TrEMBL record:
Source organism of the structure: Niabella digestorum
Record protein name field: ATP-dependent DNA helicase RecG
Gene field: recG
GO molecular function: DNA helicase activity; hydrolase activity
Function summary: Plays a critical role in recombination and DNA repair. Helps process Holliday junction intermediates to mature products by catalyzing branch migration. Has replication fork regression activity, unwinds stalled or blocked replication forks to make a HJ that can be resolved. Has a DNA unwinding activity characteristic of a DNA helicase with 3'-5' polarity.
The reaction(s) this protein catalyses: Couples ATP hydrolysis with the unwinding of duplex DNA by translocating in the 3'-5' direction; ATP + H2O = ADP + phosphate + H(+)
Length: 704
């Protein structure tokens, strides 16, 4: 029944069916059933223009929707280009409201008849002190329209093309009204176990679908919403948990049986500091994971500077102790090189072979590395994505570490996976803090570790927001810091990798900075995406060895670079950056023992959002807190690394606003699977059947 093509529904002909498919992706009865209203109107309530004016001008509700009855006035097209619009008005006994359309201008003029009474419905706004509705829902008025309809009428998302075929936001409701009576509880069988329904006092699935569309009352609507949101979140959790538990039980992994010579020698003799509690905990988790003969697939999150690299290194030594090779992959050449130098330095007194492989390693050197990797004499390979090329053949790869995971595509990761007969263990490290709720939803099938403790002695970076016209004061401050022997970063936004505009912007900034900091008293490194790798490298190097005091750069230095003597980070046009990016950049300073500063330079004109971002940045240095705020400001769809996850495409639930429900669903799900891991108990049969029927609806790669 629900899988029937939409064309078979009463009121839908071939033409409408095609439009519904094209415009709203509605192919079947089921799709229509899941086309949920975005609000309901009290159909019996007609607002007068005078009432609406009062409401708006008395500083009334921001988000007010209302319907009016009146006669439609003549049309007029005004404005040019993007401001071109169709304008008319609706006149009732108390006044007129303006009606405005920005698109489908011709269509609207063809369909609507000036001089005729209409019901106009929409969101009220005020423009030059007039009440206005942009893209109103228009329906021919007839007095009987008010009689005999349900009390709360649903309004659906629609499009101008559909409106032209009489399928506007209200009229789609007619189709749903035709569909609902045809459904029986058999079409929408219960899929949650009875005890869950009872404990949480949820209404049945069948009822929920009725009431979400046509609720007899507000309470009915809310009950339906609650039930369906819970179901949505719960089923997503269930799928992820099942995937994970299947991986835990059935995947084969190489076994790191012992903690041996390499690990112990390094830990006792060469580890330059005491590990933090969090680092130790994560190491234990990795040790446990890799010892049991199942494949580890773990996400390691830790704020910038929390010390993920050393955890990675110790894990690689663990692999070496068990005669397995490791590879560590970084997103950029600079980072890979830095990892290599740091690690080679730490291991210099040990008898272990480490190599660096990047795109710029060529000829004899490359040949020798490939040889060492394939005969197993190189135990630790560090590199860029050059390490996933087919030419790179490992003797026995046991561990893959991916630094800054969001820079790698799923496909790239999958290639590493295939480099051993039994898939190697995978540790994905990220410094982009992901709020816990999101992490568990987006990466629910990965195991998850977090380093939530910074090494001792770190001072928070003092963060200040300044406007452009205060620039010379900022430059004076930089001079004072440089006079103390410190170094500074000045960062320009990078809108598009190596685009011309960014480059010119950066160069203009560089020229200006040079006037404040003339040679030979000052030396400046410039790094940007348009430079050849070698030149970039050289400029970076000069800054690292303190040949230059100032680094002017686009965001290429965003990740990983480590210059402890740099104490000031100036971010130009800071309003152009997102929160997590600002946080990442700020993480470049505050790495040494000196007090560090981050100065956010912006223009005076700021959007509310940008102002909020500056406020958050100056208020906290906690990456997780910032990530939570980022999530609130931008919504989950935009958070780095989660875009393709699919798990976030909830129709009703919202991972930010419904967080308590996410937590509840998670708990219910875990309890249920602890009690009945394979869903064998009869009371869980409906759930099992439902999940089976949904198979193939989400695509999951082996490494999420
Ligand atoms: P990230 O997590 O951002 O990759 P790194 O691994 O680069 O951080 O570590 C940042 C700095 O902190 C490095 O200089 C590293 O040597 C140092 N560090 C890491 N762990 C500790 C620790 N437990 N105690 C002191 N310093 C540490
Ligand atoms: Mg790092």
């Amino acid at each position: 029944m629900l899988s029937s093509p939409i064309v078979y529904l009463k009121g839908v002909g071939p033409q409408r069916a095609e439009l519904l498919q094209k415009e709203l992706n509605i192919f079947t009865f089921n799709d229509l059933l899941h086309h949920f209203p975005y609000r309901h109107v009290d159909k019996t309530k007609i607002t007068t223009v005078a009432e609406a004016e009062f409401m708006l001008h008395s500083g009334g509700k921001q988000d007010a929707y209302a319907q009016f009855v009146g006669v439609l006035g003549p049309f007029e097209v005004i404005g040019e280009k993007r401001a071109r619009r169709l304008v008319s008005y609706l006149k009732d006994k108390t006044g007129t409201i303006e009606l405005v359309w920005f698109s489908a201008i011709h269509l609207i003029q063809k369909i609507l008849r000036p001089g005729t009474p209409y019901i106009a419905y929409g969101r009220l706004s005020s423009f030059q002190n007039k009440v206005q509705i942009v893209h109103p829902e228009m329906e021919l008025w007839a007095p009987e329209k008010l009689a005999g309809k349900s009390y709360l009428e649903p309004i659906y998302p629609s499009t101008e093309k559909l409106k032209a075929k009489n399928l506007g936001g209200k009229q789609i409701g007619n189709l749903i009204q035709a569909l609902l009576p045809q459904l029986t509880p058999n079409d929408l069988p219960e899929n949650l176990p009875a005890n869950v329904i009872n404990n949480l006092k949820l209404i049945s699935r069948f009822e929920a679908y009725q009431y979400i569309h046509f609720p007899p009352s507000q309470q009915h609507y809310l009950a339906a919403l609650r039930r369906l949101k819970f179901e949505e979140i719960f089923m997503a959790q269930m799928r992820l948990n099942l995937l994970r538990s299947q991986r835990h039980r059935f995947s084969k992994g190489v076994v790191f049986e012992i903690v041996g010579h390499y690990f112990n020698t390094f830990y006792k003799n060469h580890l330059p500091f005491e590990l933090t509690g969090a680092q130790k905990r994560v190491l234990r988790e990795i040790r446990n994971d890799t010892a049991r003969g199942r494949q580890m697939n773990r996400l390691l999150q830790g704020d910038v500077g929390s010390g993920k690299t050393i955890v990675a290194l110790l894990s690689m030594l663990l692999a070496a102790d068990n005669n397995y090779q490791s590879v560590m992959m970084a997103p950029t050449e600079i980072l890979a090189r830095q990892h290599f130098q740091g690690i080679a330095d730490l291991l210099k007194d040990m008898d272990i072979r480490v190599a660096l492989l990047t795109g710029s390693v060529k000829g004899k050197e490359r040949k020798s590395i490939l040889q060492g990797v394939s005969d197993g004499s190189i135990q630790l390979l560090i590199g860029t994505h050059a390490v996933i090329e087919d030419a790179v053949q490992f003797k026995n790869l046991g561990l893959v570490i991916i630094d800054e995971q969001h820079r790698f595509g799923v496909a790239q990761r999958a290639r590493l996976w295939e480099k051993n007969e039994i898939p190697p263990h995978v540790l994905v490290m990220t410094a982009t803090p992901i709020p816990r709720t999101l992490a568990m939803t987006a990466y629910g099938d990965l195991d998850y570790s977090v380093i939530d403790e910074l090494p001792p002695g770190r001072q928070p970076v003092h963060t200040i927001h300044r406007y452009d016209h205060e620039r010379s004061l900022v430059m004076d401050f930089l001079k004072a810091e440089i006079a103390k022997g410190r170094q500074v970063y000045i960062i320009f936004p990078l809108i598009e990798e190596s685009s011309k505009l960014d480059y010119e912007n950066l160069m203009r900034g560089y020229e200006e900075i040079k006037t404040y900091f003339p040679e030979p008293q000052y030396w400046i490194s410039v790094v940007h995406g348009k430079q050849p790798a070698a030149q970039k490298e050289e400029n970076m190097r000069r800054f690292v060895v303190h040949d230059t005091q100032i680094m002017v750069s686009t965001t290429v230095i965003e990740v990983g670079v480590n210059v402890p003597n740099a104490t000031v980070m100036v971010i130009e046009s800071a309003e152009k950056f997102g929160l997590s990016q600002l946080h990442q950049l700020r993480g470049r300073v505050g790495r040494g023992s000196e007090k560090s500063y981050c100065i956010l330079l912006t223009s005076r004109k700021l959007s509310n959002d940008a102002r909020e971002r500056m406020k958050i940045m100056t208020a906290t240095t906690n990456g997780f807190e910032i990530a939570e705020k980022d999530l609130e400001l931008r919504g989950p769809g935009d958070i780095e690394g989660t875009r393709q996850s699919g798990m976030l495409n909830f129709k009703l639930a919202n991972i930010v606003n419904d967080r308590s429900m996410v937590d509840a669903a998670k708990k219910v799900c875990e309890d249920l699977l602890t009690d009945d891991p394979d869903l064998m108990k009869p009371e869980n049969e409906p759930l099992k059947l439902y999940l089976q029927s949904q198979k193939g609806k989400t695509i999951w790669s082996k490494i999420s």
